[in-house]
Design a protein that fits this description.
four-stranded antiparallel beta sheet; mainly beta; six-stranded mixed beta sheet
Length: 121
């Protein structure tokens, strides 16, 4: 059993919005340091957003101003609100806390399966 359940992906038109959720499947799982990653076709696995233990929240340049990471009160669910979506945002999104960079996000399935986001122009 993987520790995280990721949901919220889907197909929307450019300019639309989606909200992804990442929930700990076990109440004892520590969500500290979790971030959102994505695999876009032809590109390496990319860190999209992450709440840092020190300093401001990190957003990749490509999503800054459009995506917002947050968590609920009990800190067991992590969200990614995605607004003004673009076709280049299409890809598989994962929630994880890896200690090293991976070129392929599929490795992050050790935390939980990804959710597919498809944006049409």
């Amino acid at each position: 059993e993987v520790p995280l359940e990721v949901s919220g992906g889907g197909s929307v038109q450019a300019g639309g919005s989606l909200r992804l959720s990442c929930r700990a499947s076990r109440g004892s799982f520590d969500m500290t340091g979790m971030g959102w990653y994505r695999q876009v076709a032809g590109k390496e696995c990319e860190l999209v957003a992450k709440e840092m233990s020190i300093g401001p929240t990190y957003y990749s340049e490509s999503v800054e101003g459009r995506f917002t990471i947050s968590r609920d009160g009990d800190k067991k669910t992590l969200y990614l609100q995605m607004n003004n979506l673009k076709p280049e945002d299409s890809g598989e999104y994962y929630c994880a806390n890896p200690t090293v960079h991976y070129k392929e996000c599929r490795v992050l399935e050790a935390w939980g399966l990804g959710t597919l986001v498809t944006i049409s122009s």
